[in-house]
Amino acid sequence: MDLESLPISNLPEMAETWQQTINWQPSQEEQSQLQRLYQLILAGNLQLNLTRITEPEEFWEKHLWDSLRGMAPQQQFISTLQDKTKLIDIGTGAGFPGLPIAIVFPNCQVTLLDSTRKKINFIDQVLTNLSLNNGKTLVGRVEEIGQQNQHRQQYDLATIRAVGTVSACAEYTLPLLKKDGLAVIYRGSWTREEEKSLENAVKQLGGVVELIEEFTTPLAHSIRHCLYLRKVENTPSKFPRAVGVPTQKPI
Ligand code: SAM
Q1: Ligand 1 cavity residues, CB under 6 Å
Q2: Confidence band (pLDDT; 50, 70, 90) for 16?
């Protein structure tokens, strides 16, 4: 199979959908980088278990569109920052949502963190291949990274998708943020009960729940949510707790 010849054939036709749903028109260059990312992931999947989402439409919607949808309310936030916005994508896996964000927001300095060395090695190859100078990688457990001076309170934005419970996501993201920084937690379903326990956890971590957005995906019409947490105070030094504790003993 010649992987180079597998296009996301419908990407150009999706321009209108991008515009209508996230008010963004991909440039020719961005289109071809997203296209190339798809091809690299299909090729990488032959050696590594990167993703089960490989069909073009599904890949477009669940990986590309979803990654950028989470950032839609934040475009203003990013463009108005004086210095380069520092974003960390926690548990990035094959690079989602971090890689599409790095492609579309060149003023954003994206750190892609995962505990699996093989996935990070793959992402290093993608960064080189796409000449993405605004992306860098980090291998480790976020519970440990969040206690290191060079990472704690260093980021303007922290994204996290499909990595544990919502209170664990809050405990992973908030310690890494500067004061006034924002965590973006990507979720599928969401309930009022979860909102109460999230509010309690976020308060203990020095944050507030700023916005919860519900939206429908453009192709499969499934419901998704994005939770936006603002850091308003320093996070107590005991957070994040030791490796495994945030999931075993939720706040
Ligand atoms: N965010 C990607 C996505 O949405 O496609 C990947 C999600 S995958 C289900 C979860 C990833 O989080 C895995 O690659 C795993 O290695 C990583 N991960 C889980 N716990 C972690 C931790 N404590 N620190 C760093 N990475 C972690």
Answers
A1: 91-94, 96, 113-116, 119, 141-143, 161-163
A2: confident
Q: List the one residue out of 149, 4, 8 whose CA is nearest residue 65.
A: 8
Q: What is the pLDDT of residues 67-108, one digit of tens each?
A: 999 988 766 666 665 568 999 999 999 999 999 999 988 889
Tokens of 53: 């989402």
Total number of domains in the chain: 1
Element (H, E) at 185: strand 177-187
Whether pLDDT at 1 is above 50: no
Rounded distance from Cα 139 to ligand 1 centre (Å): 11
Query: Which ipTM value was assigned to this complex?
Result: 0.99
Domain of residue 243, residue span: 3-248
Q: State the CATH number of the domain containing residue 151.
A: 3.40.50.150
pLDDT at position 75, please?
A: 64
For a ligand 1 pocket test, name from 115, 167, 226 the mutation site with the most ligand atoms within 8 angstroms of its C-beta: 115
From first CA to last CA, the distance across the chain in angstroms is 49
Where does 23-146 have alpha helices with state H? Answer: 28-45, 56-58, 66-69, 75-80, 98-104, 117-129, 142-145
Give me 149's structure tokens.
């001076």
> pLDDT by residue (tens digit) across 32-45?
899 999 999 999 99
